[in-house]
Amino acid sequence: MRVLGLDVGSKTIGVAVSDELGWTAQGVKTIVIDEERNQFGISEIEAIVKEYGVEKVVVGLPKNMNGTIGPRGEASQKFAKMLEKKVQLPVILWDERLSTVAAERVLLEADISRKKRKKVIDKMAAVMILQGFLDSQM
């Protein structure tokens, strides 16, 4: 069963997908969105769901360090509800505290240039979110 992982921001959505066994997460792409115009890349996500045969979606939930939900977390919750209606699949919110920090660290350790890091950081954060979820299921 494949699982889709999403790191939802205000300008982009990082996308990752699991292997068929649900063991590992691989980055797929970064979708450019426009939150102010309510353009969330839903049709692109639906195409990825079909292409990979996804059966479940994990959306990163950015919590504050004290565990409370702030404006970005509320936006992710709203997005998750909208997505669940569109794709007709279970959508799980997953605590993503520090996922972008972890992704940045991995890319720095791999000696990726700042310019290239900017292009892949959201996709890498989606991988971190999805891998955390997959690891919790084992």
Automatic annotation (TrEMBL):
Similarity section: Belongs to the YqgF HJR family.
EC number: 3.1.-.-
Function: Could be a nuclease involved in processing of the 5'-end of pre-16S rRNA.
Chief subcellular location: cytoplasm
Membrane spanning stretches: none
Signal peptide: none
Cited SMART domains: YqgFc
Main enzyme class: hydrolase
Swiss-Prot/TrEMBL keywords: Cytoplasm, Hydrolase, Nuclease, Ribosome biogenesis
Keyword Hydrolase: yes
Gene name per UniProt: ruvX
GO molecular function: hydrolase activity, acting on ester bonds; nuclease activity
Listed name of the protein: Putative pre-16S rRNA nuclease
InterPro entries: RNaseH-like_sf, YqgF, YqgF/RNaseH-like_dom, YqgF/RNaseH-like_dom_sf
